[in-house]
Amino acid sequence: MTAAPEPAGFTPPAYGDRSLADVVPSVARALGVELDGHPVGLELPPAPSYVVFLIDGMGAKLLARYAHSAPYLSSLLDGAAIGTAGVPSTTATSLTSLGTGLVPGAHGLVGFTARIPGTDRLLNHLWWDKGVDPVEWQPHPTALGRLAHAGVHVTSVNKRDFDGSGLTVASQRGATYVGADRVGERIAATVAASAGQPSLTYVYDSDLDWTGHKFGVASTQWLQQLAMVDAEAEQLREALPASTRLLVVADHGMVDSPRDARIDVDEVHGMRDGVALLGGEARFRHLYCAAGAVPDVVATWREVLGDRATVLTREEAIGRGWFGAVSPGVLPRLGDVMVACHDDTAVMSSRDFAYEDTLVGLHGSLTPAEMLIPILVG
């Protein structure tokens, strides 16, 4: 079995330099606090307080392409650093890297869905499962919690529904949580939280990502939502004192996947053979294989997908550094085989993931449109 070449169009994660896992340790240094064990490649200006505003789905390529719809954010692009998501480029993985300061192979949230080891079930990392303890699933102290322990005022401003969720506990425990559902609430809560010094206030907006999934990133709806989040960022900057730095980042970008670019594994003969459990998401699939079936599954999927995706064994993907250093407990959560889509290809399952096929915009793979994220200092 020959290894599939990694396409030149993929962007590798910049772990230890400019990845999401490096953001909070870099902010910590700017606040005058060192988080031991975290190399810092991202240099940020010193300040007594920082606000980290994460805009879900606002990839660097999208922001540059549609700069006219985001005049404030695009005004910060000149000279700004370009960072990367981790792998896969998906919300649960990215938010956990940001909050913990860890690569996916360490924190273990390795996709939208991943197998619960020893079972034939998937854990959906966004919606979670009451039978899975998030502290056991992600046992490491978070970077946010470590900052709080060091005497920094650390606050997470987010929707009330997310308070105490599995993903929140896994990624943000140790921060004081403030529920705020509307833009005005979020800005007011952020200003109040950031008044303490030193402080780090994390604020999150998911509406751009939702709009991209539903209507696509080439849609009028998405451009209007980009304009709205741009105004939110500008209003937040204006409401904060000059001494507080505003750091705007994203968790991933997005690509639109048209109908003719989609492959349904339940309609293609042989693609289910040897696959005991299908996980991940449409742009980055984890294939959990029956015993001894890996070589045949790799051969079949490479033949069917050709140059539309990179198909790797678990060992090959780890060897390419996609997840950073992988902890032994995380290893069985990764697919025996992984499929990273090229261009606008998506691998669907009408049987297991019917909802995904209703979405227009998708993410998860390693294309620049998905991986590259802005790191904007205001």
UniProtKB/TrEMBL annotation:
InterPro entries, per the entry: Alkaline_phosphatase_core_sf, Phosphodiest/P_Trfase
Organism domain of life: Bacteria
Classification via Gene3D superfamilies: Alkaline Phosphatase, subunit A (3.40.720.10)
Pfam families associated with the record: Phosphodiest
Protein name (Swiss-Prot/TrEMBL): Alkaline phosphatase family protein
